[in-house]
Amino acid sequence: MTATAGSVCLEVRDATRSFGGLVAVNAVSFQVARHSVTAVIGPNGAGKTTLFNLISGAVPPSSGRVLFEGTDVTHEAPEAKAARGLIRTFQLVKLFPELSAVENVKVGFHLRSRGGLLAALLRPRAIRDMEAAIEDRARALLHLVGLGSAADLPAAALSYGQGRLLEVARALAAQPKLLMLDEPAAGLNGDETARLASLIRDIAEDGTAVLLIEHDMHLVMNTADEVVVVDFGRKIAQGAPDRIRQDPAVIAAYLG
Ligand SMILES: Nc1ncnc2c1ncn2[C@@H]1O[C@H](COP(=O)(O)OP(=O)(O)OP(=O)(O)O)[C@@H](O)[C@H]1O
């Protein structure tokens, strides 16, 4: 399957999901380009979380397709998608509270490094080298998200906002090609949101496509290249933030 070759990282085609008589996601199609940030926005209950579940594999679609890097992954489990580089963080922070920040990030490496681990187990020297490389990389990622000085603190000692940033660092450890963020700014203060916005731009510029659900319009307008707007399960608009802000259908959805 080469239909999404080139600059497209993710393609969602006519994704549909019903729950009983309710069509939570209704024939939604869009693409996410490499090096780009795409935001999915919409009123409460519009279908954003269900759409994310269809893409990550947590919920199978009733119909439609999901293509990742040109391959049809519609019916793959979340773990298989993660191994391909489609990585999602969750709305709830699920960190290991007793482990240090750097240990939490190291957990992220194992989301994608299955084959290499067995080979390393057979060679103790290789394990030590690998562990040292992972430690260095984990500390570099903490530095990137602004938690360099908190590397050795237990995750339980971090503020809520720091915990969310730690979760992003852990997701980056898995070397995503596509990073899916569920409401990453929820619960963050203004400074943390500003740091997160610049971090998201850096991640995209480094080559990882970012797809986010976000209610914080300031973050959306400051980070997204492309905004997909859903309402009652349907895509009602798509485009650059400036255009979306003035779109009559979007304004009506939010006022209505
Ligand atoms: N497992 C489920 N069973 C039945 N209905 C569901 C299920 N999951 C979601 N829904 C319904 O699908 C619709 C879309 O929900 P969804 O959570 O995807 O919206 P959302 O845009 O993420 O909302 P919010 O912004 O409030 O998180 C809602 O009407 C919701 O009640």
Q: Could you give the order of strands across the largest sheet?
A: 6-7-8-3-9-10
Total discrete domains: 2
Task: Write down the overall geometry.
Answer: globular
Low-confidence segments, ≥5 residues, pLDDT <50?
none
Say which molecules are bound, naming each kind only once: adenosine-5'-triphosphate
Q: What is Rg?
A: 19 Å
**The first-level CATH class name of the largest domain:** Alpha Beta
Number of strands: 10
Distance between the termini: 41 Å
- Report the major sheet: 6 strands, mixed
- The CATH architecture of the largest domain can be given as 3-Layer(aba) Sandwich
Mean pLDDT comes to 89
Description of the structure:
- A hairpin with a 2-residue loop joins β9 and β10.
- With about 260 residues, this protein is of the alpha/beta class.
- The longest helix is centred in the middle third of the chain and has 21 residues.
- It folds into two domains: about 170 residues, Rossmann fold (3-Layer(aba) Sandwich); about 80 residues, no CATH class.
- It contains ten helices and ten strands.
- α5 crosses α6.
- The strands form two sheets. It has a six-stranded mixed sheet, with helices on both faces. The protein has a four-stranded antiparallel sheet with strand order 2-1-4-5, with helices on one face.
- The chain binds adenosine-5'-triphosphate.
